[in-house]
Amino acid sequence: MTTPLLPREHYLNIRYGILSWLLTKDHKRIALLYLISVTAFFFLGGFFAVLIRLELATPAGDMVSSDTYNKLFTMHGVIMVFFFLIPSIPAVLGNFLIPMMIGAKDLAFPRLNLLSWYIYMLGGTFTMWAVIVGGVDTGWTFYTPYSTAASNTNVVATGLGVFITGFSSILTGLNFIVTIHRMRAPGLTWFRLPLFVWAHYATSLIFILGTPVIAITVLLLAVERGLHIGIFDPALGGDPVLFQHLFWFYSHPAVYIMVLPSMGVVSEVVACFSRKNIFGYSFVAFSSLAIAVFGFLVWAHHMFVAGMSVYAAMIFSFLSYAVAIPSAVKVFNWTATLYKGSISWQAPLLFVFGFLGLFTIGGMTGLFLAALAIDVHVHDTYFIVAHFHYIMVGGAIMGYMAGLHFWWPKITGRMYPEGWAKFSALVIFIGFNLTFFPQFVLGYLGMPRRYHAYPEEFQVLNVMSSAGASILAVGYVIPMVYFLWSLRYGRAAGPNPWGATGLEWTTQSPPLTENFPMTPVVTEGAYEYSKREMRVV
Amino acid sequence: MPAPPGAVHVHDAHAHHPALQHQFETMGQQLESATLGMWLFLVTEIMFFGGLFMAYLLYRVWYPVAWAEGSLELDILLGGVNTVVLIGSSLTMALAVRAAQTGFPRATVNYLLVTMALGLTFLVIKGFEYAHKFETGHVPGPNFHFEGPHAQQVEIFLSLYFAMTGLHAVHMVIGFGLLSVIAWMAYRRRFSPEWYAPVEMAGLYWHFVDIVWIFLFPLLYLVDRAHHFV
To answer: Is B7 part of any domain?
Structure first.
């Protein structure tokens, strides 16, 4: 077998100047701009998490004051949710892959795509400014009337950052939907699309339907704070529960913005490394749409103790159970795909195994929370914190890591070191569970979230959690190091190192600026592994 | 829809329209993409205004009396004139798109200029209405004052009035800027029956902004007029 060499000309070496990056309209280069930015925000958000876990290593609130602690968990949440998790897979992997997967030269609106990155950076700058001049302490949920009448921190600057960044999500979602409708290669029918594309279509629907609502909500919050008008302040005749409704109308579907793209990655990786067609293609495809639709009808399960009508609560409880069905359909279908597959234990698949286990635990505990009585018991405790970290970190970030490893050879043209990648997958899995599983127990025993001190009997579990967090941090630093290392020293990957199906693997790695030498013609479904030789390089 | 089979080979000899961007195969595909993109953008706009309409609905149910009092403070004559002005501008906008589509560039420019003039008229009248609110102290905030038992709730009504009509006015200003660019391009003969997508996109946007006003006018100005003939 001959060793592959990097192609002579590709999208990375065609031009080198700084302006060739800052003014690029190439979706692949924009994806890399996003990759660098979201990685920076990820480590910044992680830094705040480290400080939180350090404080919680001892029962006494001895490291930072309670005010500082409020700022730490707020900044952790705001940065991780709005500036890392939401843009992560769509803006990095989706941007890079969707045009390639559908055989197009670019997204439908390349200039809007670049604009969306600038908007994201502008929003990030506002929020960073708020952090530097003193932070914000409302929690990432900005609940009124605290955020408008009581807090004396930088609520408006942070809110503006979130408002602005929202428009980058809207533009990305709009671009994806138009691209998927109008730019598919000849022969690429809807049911031949990779499931990654279906997942991003569903995500984009949430982007365009949900994000404008949070934008107007944050705008009203800023107006109320600036002019002391009672839109949400009960002392002035307003309704704080209206804020919660509007906030969660976006912010609950936002969870599906985080996890649906991850599910798209899982579908690709599972099929590739078990060398099988995906089990129940159309069920997996439609379950993405079902999650997007149902996801808009469950928001008030965040508000069961907010004084809502009990009948409304019952309906939202029922609908929250219903949304578990399409999620479970996916998990069962992936498992059935693996069944009797010819499995190769590569690092992307290890991350996907992590996703399957952790997402299942996160989803099952979500059912506890959808039950009205149990929700009253564990509301605002560490049980919730553990639950949503199992979805957002165990689900979304595991999928993101799987996708980064799977497509790294396509993005850079070079292989990452497989041994180290497997090792980091293991470290992340162990560190994650040690961090967050004790928090389920803590919450069930009654430890509330968002306090910097706690009774002594909770210390053992908190120390376990803090120890796990340090292992988890190591697990995230290792890939950072070997990905950078592989840029120079990784072995050239060749067009298709995994022997995967999918149009993106039919072209050179890294691809040409125009992706394909000529527009491909599609004649078969997305996962025809049975027609391929059974070999992974 | 996938590109038609005839467009498979990218680098063949036939000449491309100068306005065809490199990522598209045909002008038809480009126009369809732009149209779909614009409609999706308008969907996001509906959701954006939707949050305000939700707040309006809630407080209208909670505070019907204050809503009636607040609504009577608005000038129904100026609001009515503005409604007519905006509907008129939608007509001239539609005529501009039609003229571009059928290849009459001078008519396109003229209709666009009339549309812009009507848009400006709307904004000027709106400006007078706002100025009057400042004079009477009916602007929400620290200097707000209103006689009557429901002052606080009327302030919420007027907050929503300013938020909704203000956001609408911002959209009008953006639309005015958009139309100036389009009118300039039309004046430079940049459009033809083969390519007039920007005129059509600007038209969709303009009509959307009009329709928002068609909802705002009855909800804010007419909400309780049935009991109080002027």
So the answer is: no
Asked if the C-beta of B39 comes within 8 angstroms of chain A's C-beta atoms, the answer is no
State the CATH number of the domain containing residue B190.
1.20.120.80
Mutation target among A24, A188, A229, A242 for the B interface, most CBs of B within 10 A: A229
A197-226 pLDDT tens trace: 999 999 999 999 999 999 999 999 999 998
Nearest to B44 among A212, A229, A238 (CB): A212
A267: amino acid identity, one letter: S
**Given pLDDT bands bounded at 50, 70 and 90, which one contains residue B8?**
very low
Shortest CA gap A315–chain B (Å): 20
* Residue A357: burial class (beta carbons within 10 Å; 0-12, 13-18, 19+): middle
Enumerate the residues of chain B whose CB falls inside 8 A of the CB of residue A209.
Answer: 43-44, 47
The dihedral through the CA atoms of A119, A125, A131, A135 has a sign that is negative
Name residues whose C-beta falls within 8 Å of residue A246's C-beta, 6 or more positions apart in sequence: A213, A214, A216, A217, B51, B54, B55
Beta-carbon-side half-sphere exposure of residue A234 (alpha carbons within 13 Å): 7
Whether residues B141 and A227 touch (CB distance < 8 A) is answered with yes
Chain B residue at shortest CA distance from A208:
B44
Q: Which domain holds residue B143?
A: 26-225
Please tell me the predicted confidence (pLDDT) of residue B230.
47
pLDDT at B15: 63
Predicted pLDDT at A227: 85
| Predicted local distance difference test score (pLDDT) of residue B9 | 44
Percent of chain B with pLDDT over 90: 76
Tell me the residues of chain B between 159 and 218 that have a Cβ less than 8 Å away from chain A. 159-160, 163
The predicted structure's pLDDT at residue B14: 53
Domain count, chain B: 1
Residue B78 lies inside a defined structural domain of this protein = yes
Distances (CA, A) of B209 to A280, B180, B185: 44, 16, 22
What structural domains does chain A harbor?
30-518 (1.20.210.10)
Low pLDDT (below 50) residues in chain A: 1, 536-537
Report if residue B96 sits inside a domain.
yes
